[in-house]
Amino acid sequence: MTATDPALTALAQGWCALSALHGRIETHIERALQAGHDLSVREYSLLDVLSRQHDGEGGHLQMKQVADAVVLSQSATTRLVTRLEDRGLLERYLCPTDRRGIYTNVTEAGLRLLEEARPTNDTALREALDEASENPELAPLVRVVESLSVPA
User: Do residues 89 and 82 touch, judged by C-beta distance below 8 A?
Assistant: First the structure.
């Protein structure tokens, strides 16, 4: 295939549309979360991921798993955890079975903030998708996103 190959051009255009949709959604949610709860999208995502941990087998995430879940590097995730820990929203503790492992839990204050912010996040997501669906280039992607059924 050459750089002017129609298949590559279509692929690039599709990627640009997907990137545009993601950017619009993230920006809309970011503004709503910052205005209403002093949270960034990444902070909200981190609180959400960590709030889903449980005490059963494999229920607590290692930092690499957390980083993968919030789509950040491990170092960026560690800095984010530190910021939220400084705000009293997270707490770290040593793994009881492996003293080298460090886990992170959401504090009661973090859980309260997450529950307060969840409707804001959900509303902003819906608004961003509704707005994007009016754009002919983004509408097919919005329909795909709306049709996804991903396990929690």
Answer: no
- C-alpha 134/C-alpha 115 separation (Å) is 30
Q: Give the least confident one: 24-33, 87-96, 122-131.
A: 87-96
Neighbours of 28 (CB within 10 A): 20
Counting beta carbons within 10 angstroms of the beta carbon of residue 128, is it exposed (0 to 12), middle (13 to 18) or buried (19 or more)? Answer: buried
Is the model's pLDDT at 51 over the cut of 70?
Answer: yes
Q: Which residues does residue 94 pair with via DSSP β-bridges, in sequence order?
A: 102
CA 137 and chain centroid, separation = 24
8 A C-beta contact, residue 132 and residue 25 = yes
The amino acid present at 96, given as its one-letter code, is P
Q: How many CA atoms lie less than 13 Å away from 58 in the CB half-sphere?
A: 1
